């Protein structure tokens, strides 16, 4: 079986680096707290592109600021 690598959500690191509260993201990006928690802790099986777009819009960041790809071995 081939290891294609994985996509990692780095939103929590970005949030902490920029000192942005979870409450501000929930309120301004129109996401549920539980949903945000899952994104922050990289526990998302199926990414909702609309959610990512709203988060990026609020944070004024690029998708590459909150997602990264790790190559497989």
Write a structural description.
The chain is mainly alpha-helical and 73 residues long. It has one domain: Orthogonal Bundle (434 Repressor (Amino-terminal Domain)). Helices cover 48% and strands 11% of the residues. The chain has four helices and two strands, in the order E-H-H-H-H-E. The longest helix is centred in the last third of the chain and has 11 residues, at 49-59. The chain is elongated and about 40 Å long. The model has no long low-confidence stretch (mean pLDDT 95).
Short description:
The protein is mostly helical and 73 residues long. The protein is 48% helix and 11% strand.
List the helices and strands and how they pair.
Layout: E1 6-9, H1 11-18, H2 22-29, H3 33-40, H4 49-59, E2 67-70
Antiparallel strand pairs: 1-2
Backbone shape: elongated
What is the strand tally? 2
Radius of gyration equals 13 Å
Structural class determined from secondary elements: mainly alpha
Report mean pLDDT, rounded to a whole number: 95
> What is the CATH top level name?
Mainly Alpha
In the residues, how many domains can be counted? 1
Strand order within the widest beta sheet: 1-2
Give a short account of the largest sheet: 2 strands, antiparallel
Tell me the number of helical segments per DSSP (H or I, 4 or more residues long). 4
**What's the name of the CATH homologous superfamily?**
lambda repressor-like DNA-binding domains
Residue windows where pLDDT falls under 50 for at least 5 positions: none
Head-to-tail CA distance between termini:
11 Å
């Amino acid at each position: 079986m081939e290891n294609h690598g994985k996509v990692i959500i780095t939103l929590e690191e970005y949030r902490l680096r920029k000192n942005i509260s979870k409450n501000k993201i929930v309120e301004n990006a129109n996401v549920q707290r539980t949903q945000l928690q899952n994104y922050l802790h990289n526990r998302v099986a199926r990414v909702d592109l609309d959610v990512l777009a709203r988060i990026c819009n609020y944070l004024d960041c690029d998708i590459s600021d909150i997602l990264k790809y790790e190559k497989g071995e």
